[in-house]
Structure formats: structure tokens, C-alpha cells
Specification:
The complex is a heterodimer of chains A (409) and B (252).
Chain A lengths: L8 H10 L6 H26 L16 H24 L10 H22 L3 H11 L5 H24 L6 H26 L11 H25 L9 H7 L3 H26 L7 H6 L2 H19 L7 H27 L19 H24 L7 H12 L1
Helix pairs in contact in A: 2-14, 3-4, 3-7, 3-8, 3-13, 3-14, 4-6, 4-8, 4-14, 6-7, 7-8, 8-10, 8-13, 9-15, 10-12, 12-13
Chain B lengths: L3 E6 L8 H10 L9 E7 L6 E7 L8 H5 L5 E3 L5 E3 L9 H5 L5 E3 L10 H4 L33 E3 L4 H4 L22 H5 L5 E5 L6 H8 L15 E4 L17
Parallel strand pairs in B: 1-9
Antiparallel strand pairs in B: 1-8, 2-3, 4-5, 6-7
Classes of the chains: A mainly alpha (409), B alpha+beta (252).
Chain lengths: 409, 252
């Protein structure tokens, strides 16, 4: 994009306000997402002030964690995945991924902020958390460590983005922050998996595989987010994409990474459902319910298997429209996955009893859906802001030149 | 230091729910938000189907998973073996509710189980979540131990009537409601139980009545396979039972 990027905070604020009067794809996203954010946030706050968290459809005798937690998990893991994508070039030396590194870091920051925002509105006392968790030092709690690692992750991401903003791609400190960020994000997303995986009384969640699944499926949602974002930045017109970036997206590198990740996630999902259906262990009944849910089939076949085939097909994998379609389907599929995984783990009652005799039903309330809109619009608004204020396509000069030659040659 | 525990004789329990009502009145519960409940379930099929039931307070586990997952330390275990929630530290994340195998934890701000919503009929003007006319004396309220009417957006649970039990004379082996000297220290559900199915005492004292009953009458614990080691034991005898599995049949 041919923007003039601001150099001072004052210019940045002016640039953000100016965007309301501009007409290009990024400005349209900015205006729509700010409007959606304002409307959804106003609704959520109104409901929280009048009804409190009773506006949610979660309940003590059924599903305690609903769509708000699923939205947080979706964004937190997407953020982790984006950091992993950025690490490909900045930690592991796959230089062809440099053109998306800065964009991935920015998206990682904003998706984490979107996730934290939704979580704060779900928690009973978010401000109390700020002192009670550090002072409590509950080292046995997976949630405590999840908080520690994601906080470290956010700080490291901001530092890294600041360094990239200052064009510091190659200093020792910049490399150190990149490597530390990679470690933090593996620990954070793995620990988020353990928040669920540690619970033996919830057999559908239990086990270290949940942690591994969260890391890998997070990488997949990160990869999908970066593809959508790249095409979004250029109005879905591949001809406008600069050469180095084009060589990455229109070559077979990104589709290959994408297809591999979808494939691994599919293996995880299908082996999990196999174990769930095959095992006679008490508490696995939720898998039968899952198999009868249309959303589950939409997720597995339409949102994951179909994109997998698209990204394997030589005629489709390098076509921008199919890449974008596959990415959007994957993002939708992984959101369904987060929601279904979290709900299905809770809606099998612990034992027979008066108050529930089957799988507990749960459908998010309007307030909970609005909270999803808060998360999505926060991410989109901050994305547009980043696109306009920072040069998200920036990459090290030598890499841009080399990749440019590759694209031309 | 005592390790308080409860024994419930299912052969004596008639499922009258007097314990549930007594608990609700003693602890100012919202209608339907039963810290203590009697759970009914069926075993077998016609013509040999049986209706069974068991009272279910918080199990006050030896290894409470709710305490292990709490990120702030709001859920804790006292020296005398009671699992409590400090409402001043609870952030309302509900992780403890997800991790409790017994479904005995309640979030304050939810859709009312029974209409009308008593929180709106008796609204609170301060930090309390509501202001019922039948509440316990203010002097007894103790948010650090999860006793009284809770504030908004925290998790609450059975305290074994900690405001009573914690004042019992040290060294008491059993809190027998038949003994006038001990009655005021005994949990409300035990005091009110008409058929005398509930017993409360010190599990660490091998001479206590509760320890003897668990040994002599083969006390069992709910979902013992999970390893939480509840401090609530059930005597099933010939006719009583606790459910050993979940409510639904996988293959059906």
C-alpha cells in the first residue's frame, strides 16, 4: 500500500482519525469494524450493567464455560500460531517467510488483545485478577501458568514489533526477543491446552494430547489468518501484491505449510473421535453427541477436509481466490472446533441425577454472540489501524531484493 | 486438629429434602441454588426399576481439584479439613466449577432457576448480590470463609456450616445434634435431619462415631476412582446406592 506512515504518536492518532474520511479497502474495514465494535460493546455493557453475567446462557449445573471462553481460546491460539509463523523466518531462518513476519507479529498482538478483551468481559472480576493472580502464586494451577506465559508473550511481541518498527531485524537483541517469543508462545498455547487437558474428571479433554493439539491447531489458525490478511491488504487483487510477498503466497511454499497443518489437525480430530467412540470409558458419551451435531460435520468436512484438498490440488493451491476461501473456511472451522470442544467436554453430566438426565443443552445467548462480535471487530479494527499506521509489509532489505529476483525470475 | 467429615446413612435417608431447606435458610441460598441437594436417580428397567436417591453436599475432598486449579488461591482448605472460598479473592473464572467432579459449586450471576428472580425482588443496595429478609445476622457473615450472602460474580459452595463448626470445642470427636451442648456447632443439615441419617465428626480420630461407622458399615465415597478422596462417606447398606456412572448411555 502506498501510505505515508506516521512517525510520532500525534501523527498516528491523526492518521487513525483521517482514515474515517479515506476510501480504500483498509479504511472501509476500519470504519465498519469500529462501528461494529461500538455497537456490540454498547450492547454487551448494557446487558452486563442491567442483567450482569445472568445475560449468559451458561449455568452452574451444566455448561460453566461457554462461547466467550471459546472465543478467547480461538483468539489466543490464533495469536500463538501467528507468532509461530513469524518464527519461521526470525528464529528458524526460512527467509522466504520474512515478508509476512512483521504482519504476523502485529496480528499476533491484536488477536491476543481481542482474546483478552473478551475474557475480561467474561470474568466476574477482571480487575481483581490483576493483583490476585500475581499475589496468589498458585503454581499448581494451569490457569495461573497460562496467565504468566501469555503475559510474557504479549510483552515480548510488543517489544519485537517495536524493534521491527525501528527496522531492527538483525541485531542480537532482536534475535533474542524472537527466540524468547517462540519459547513463550509454545509454553503459553501448550499451557492453555493443559487448562483443559489436566482435568481427569472431564475425559473428553483429559490428556497431554490436548496441549499438543492446541499448539498445532493454533499454528493452523495463524497460517489462515496471515493468508487472509495479506490478500485483504491488497484488496484481494494478487497483481497489487509486491514481488517478494507474491513469490511466497503464489509459490507452493505457503500452500504446502498450510496443507500440512490442516492434515495434522485432521488427524488429531479424527483419531480423537475414534478413541471417543471406541472407548467404553464412562464420560466419553459426548463424542456420540458430537457425531450427531451438524456443526461438527461442517467443521470437519467443509471447513477442514475441503481446504486440505484445495491446498493439495496443483491447480487450486496457488490461486488467490482458493487460498482465501480455504483460509476463511479454516478460521470458521477452528472457531467451531473451539466452541464444540469446550462445550462437549462439559455437557456430559458427572453422574446420574435429578437435575440432568442426558447431554446438557447449551446455545449461546445474544449477549454471548455479541461478545464474539466484540472480539472479531476488535481484531479487525486493530488490523486496519496497523495496516494504515505501520508498514506491515516491511521486511529486511536484502530479503526483499532476493525474493524480488526470485519472483521476477 | 480435627479433620471434619460427614457420614450419610442411605438406608435411613428418606429423601425429604429437609436438609436442603435447612441449608438454604441457614446460608441464605437463592431458591434453587442448593449447596446441599438430594439427587434422585433410577437403576434398572421395568419391572425391576428402582428409584434411588442420595444427599449431595460439597464433598470437602482431601485432594480438592477445585483448590488445585484456582488461579488466585481463593479456594483453600482449612487446617480442620474444610474447603472454602474467599470471596475477596475470587475472580469468577469458574475454573473450580469445571474441575469439581461433584457439581457442588455455584456461580452467583446466572439466570434464576426458579421464578421470580429473588435478586430482583430483594435487590441489594451494597456489594451483596441480594438482600433477603431472612438473612443470617451480619455478625456471622464472613466473606473470607465464604459465609453469608455473597457478592456479585463469585463462586459459592457448602461450607460444612463453617460459622458453626469452627466454634466447636477443640478435641470434640463428634458433633452430635442430640447433645444440647454441641447442637449449635453442628451443620444445619445434620441438625435438621429427621430420620437421623447424617453424622458429623472428626475423621482423624479413630474413636469418633463417624470413623467407626465408616469402618464397620463399609462407607463408600462418590466417584472414588477420580482420587479426590471426599470427606463425605455414604453407608449404602442393603437398599442404598450412590451412582457409579453417568446419566446417559453411550450406545443409545
Amino acid at each position: 500500500m502506498n501510505f505515508t506512515y506516521p512517525k510520532t504518536p500525534g501523527e498516528a492518532v491523526a492518521g487513525a482519525l483521517k482514515m474515517f474520511g479515506e476510501s480504500h479497502v483498509t479504511a472501509t474495514i476500519w470504519k465498519l469494524s469500529v462501528a461494529a465494535l461500538a455497537a456490540s460493546l454498547a450492547f454487551v455493557f448494557y446487558m452486563l450493567f442491567t442483567e450482569g453475567h445472568a445475560a449468559f446462557n451458561t449455568s452452574s449445573d451444566g455448561v460453566n464455560w461457554g462461547s466467550a471462553i471459546a472465543t478467547y481460546v480461538f483468539f489466543a491460539l490464533t495469536s500463538s500460531g501467528l507468532t509461530l509463523i513469524a518464527s519461521l523466518s526470525m528464529v528458524f531462518g526460512f527467509k522466504q517467510f520474512y515478508p509476512v513476519a512483521k504482519r504476523a507479529i502485529w496480528l499476533a498482538i491484536i488477536t491476543l488483545i481481542a482474546g483478552f478483551s473478551v475474557l475480561a468481559l467474561e470474568l466476574g472480576h477482571p480487575f481483581r485478577m490483576l493483583w490476585a493472580m500475581p499475589l496468589g502464586m498458585q503454581v499448581h494451577s494451569p490457569m495461573f501458568w497460562m496467565g504468566v506465559f501469555y503475559s510474557i508473550d504479549l510483552v515480548l511481541l510488543i517489544v519485537k514489533f517495536y524493534l521491527l518498527w525501528k527496522d531492527d531485524w538483525d541485531s542480537g537483541f532482536s534475535h533474542f526477543i524472537g527466540a524468547a517469543s517462540f519459547v513463550a508462545v509454545v509454553l503459553a498455547s501448550g499451557m492453555l491446552g493443559l487448562v483443559f487437558g489436566s482435568l481427569a474428571m472431564r475425559p473428553m479433554w483429559f490428556g497431554s494430547a490436548t496441549s499438543l493439539f492446541y499448539i498445532i491447531s493454533g499454528a493452523l489458525s495463524g497460517a489462515a489468518a496471515i493468508v487472509v490478511s495479506v490478500y485483504l491488504a491488497y484488496g484481494f487483487d494478487a497483481r497489487k501484491i509486491p514481488a517478494p510477498l507474491r513469490s511466497l503466497t503464489l509459490g507452493d511454499q505457503l500452500p504446502k505449510v498450510f496443507a500440512t497443518l490442516i492434515g495434522i489437525v485432521l488427524v488429531f480430530l479424527l483419531t480423537r473421535i475414534w478413541v471417543g467412540l471406541w472407548s467404553n470409558q464412562d464420560g466419553m458419551e459426548g463424542f456420540v453427541a458430537l457425531l450427531h451435531a451438524p456443526w461438527f460435520h461442517l467443521e470437519v468436512w467443509v471447513c477442514l477436509a475441503l481446504p486440505f484438498l484445495m491446498m493439495l490440488s496443483p491447480s487450486m493451491q496457488q490461486e488467490p481466490k482458493w487460498q482465501v476461501t480455504a483460509s476463511i473456511l479454516v478460521l470458521v472451522g477452528l472457531f467451531i472446533e473451539r466452541l464444540q470442544f469446550i462445550v462437549a467436554g462439559q455437557n456430559v453430566p458427572m453422574f446420574k441425577g435429578t437435575w440432568m438426565n442426558g447431554v446438557t443443552p447449551y446455545t449461546p445467548s445474544l449477549t454471548e454472540w455479541m461478545l464474539v462480535v466484540v472480539g472479531v471487530s476488535t481484531a479487525l479494527a486493530l488490523y486496519a489501524l496497523g495496516e494504515r499506521l505501520f508498514n506491515l509489509c516491511a521486511a529486511p532489505k536484502e530479503c526483499m531484493e532476493g525474493a524480488g529476483q526470485l519472483a521476477q525470475g | 486438629m480435627a479433620k471434619w467429615g460427614m457420614v450419610i446413612d442411605l438406608e435411613k435417608c428418606v429423601g425429604c429434602q429437609a436438609c436442603t431447606i435447612a441449608c438454604g435458610m441457614e446460608n441464605n441460598r437463592l431458591p434453587g441454588e442448593n449447596w446441599q441437594d438430594v439427587i434422585f436417580f433410577t437403576e434398572g428397567t421395568y419391572p425391576s426399576a428402582q428409584l434411588k436417591w442420595f444427599p449431595r453436599p460439597c464433598q470437602h475432598c482431601e485432594n480438592p481439584s477445585c483448590m488445585a486449579v484456582c488461579p488466585t488461591g481463593a479456594t483453600y482448605k482449612t487446617e480442620d479439613g474444610v474447603v472454602l472460598v474467599d470471596w475477596n479473592k475470587c475472580i469468577g473464572c469458574k475454573y473450580c466449577m469445571v474441575a469439581c467432579p461433584y457439581g457442588v459449586r455455584f456461580y452467583t450471576d446466572e439466570k434464576p432457576l426458579i421464578a421470580p428472580d429473588m435478586r430482583k425482588v430483594y435487590p441489594s443496595k451494597d456489594d451483596h448480590s441480594w438482600n433477603p429478609p431472612w438473612k443470617m445476622p451480619d455478625a456471622r457473615e464472613d466473606w473470607k470463609h465464604g459465609v453469608g450472602i455473597q457478592p456479585h460474580d463469585v463462586v459459592s459452595k457448602c461450607t460444612f456450616c463453617y460459622h458453626r463448626v469452627s466454634k466447636a470445642p477443640p478435641g470434640t470427636p463428634d458433633l452430635d445434634p442430640q447433645d444440647p451442648k454441641l447442637r449449635e456447632f453442628t451443620p444445619a443439615c445434620v441438625v435438621t435431619c429427621a430420620p437421623g441419617a447424617r453424622f458429623f465428626g472428626d475423621l482423624s480420630n479413630p474413636e469418633s462415631n463417624v470413623s467407626r461407622m465408616i469402618g464397620d458399615k463399609r462407607g463408600v465415597r462418590l466417584l472414588d476412582q477420580l482420587g479426590n478422596k471426599p470427606q463425605v462417606y455414604y453407608l449404602t447398606g442393603v437398599g442404598g446406592a450412590v451412582p457409579s456412572n453417568r446419566a446417559i448411555h453411550k450406545k443409545s
